[in-house]
Design a protein that fits this description.
alpha/beta, two-stranded antiparallel ribbon, 10 helices, binds S-adenosylmethionine
Length: 237
């Protein structure tokens, strides 16, 4: 998979690229590359944003700047680009990133991520250049970089070779193997600590009972997640 990230802060992604699972997939042919769209601005003095029409606080990323950066990278009119690859604008109000969307994106050979800053994108960037608008949650970050990293992490750990043990990704929270439910609890040594004992079944060596216990805990967690907030307990317990 090839991921291009359009950002004003490409150095942030050096850390991401060095992480084990990302390094594992880039060693086998995937890549993450950043495009600093400030370097492609047709305006003077590295300008990428401007004041909002209609007034109000903050600065808005300009459509001509993104047009120029996308065109420089792909050599086509960006309006045509989204038919060839997913061009994802990161925005708080977008489609929420969940395991289904992560699976969908993990099957793509190429992704383009657009990281906003300041007040965000001129709406024409979203209307005419983006194929998708994705949010990592209903809160506002200062920029799209952390959102792009979350998306890349979640997507790239699904790729073959990302994880040391491929089985880690087969049966984890929200996977089909767990019917879309959160994962069951894990325990390790010591078997007892401050009087907190690991469930006996996990020490029994009885694989079928362990498997059944895990399924039950997982589906219990799934049932709790679907309760209204005032009736639910913290979702990981
Ligand atoms: C300060 S935010 C802009 C917020 C925008 N004015 C609003 O109220 O929706 C700047 C940029 O951060 C990114 N961003 C912030 N929160 C995000 C979220 N929850 N998910 C995805 N991207 C986010 C987007 O790229 C956005 O353009």
């Amino acid at each position: 998979m090839n991921v291009d990230i359009f950002t004003l802060f490409p150095e942030w992604f050096e850390w991401l690229s060095a992480q084990r699972h990302i390094a594992n997939v880039t060693a086998t042919g995937s890549r993450i590359e950043c495009v600093n769209f400030r370097e492609h601005t047709p305006l003077g003095a590295g300008q990428v944003d401007d004041t909002p029409f209609g007034g109000g606080a903050g600065m808005v990323l300009r459509v001509d700047v993104l047009d120029s950066a996308l065109r420089a990278r792909y050599g086509v009119d960006p309006v045509e680009l989204r038919a060839a690859r997913r061009v994802i604008a990161l925005a708080p109000g977008g489609r929420l990133l969940d395991d289904g969307l992560v699976d969908e994106l993990a099957s793509e050979p190429e992704l383009t991520l657009l990281c906003g800053r300041y007040e965000g994108f001129d709406e024409r960037i979203i209307e005419h250049f983006a194929s998708d608008v994705v949010s990592i949650g209903r809160y506002v970050l200062s920029g799209g970089e952390l959102a792009a990293m979350v998306l890349c992490d979640a997507v790239m750990r699904k790729l073959p070779g990302a994880l040391g043990d491929e089985r880690s990704a087969e049966e984890e929270s929200f996977s089909a193997a767990l019917d879309g439910n959160p994962e069951y609890p894990h325990y390790t040594r010591p078997a007892e600590y401050r009087g907190w004992r690991v469930p006996e079944v996990l020490l029994s060596g009885h694989h079928e009972r362990i498997e059944q216990w895990r399924r039950e805990r997982s589906s219990e967690r799934g049932a709790r997640r679907s309760l209204p907030p005032d009736e639910s307990v913290p979702p990981t317990r």
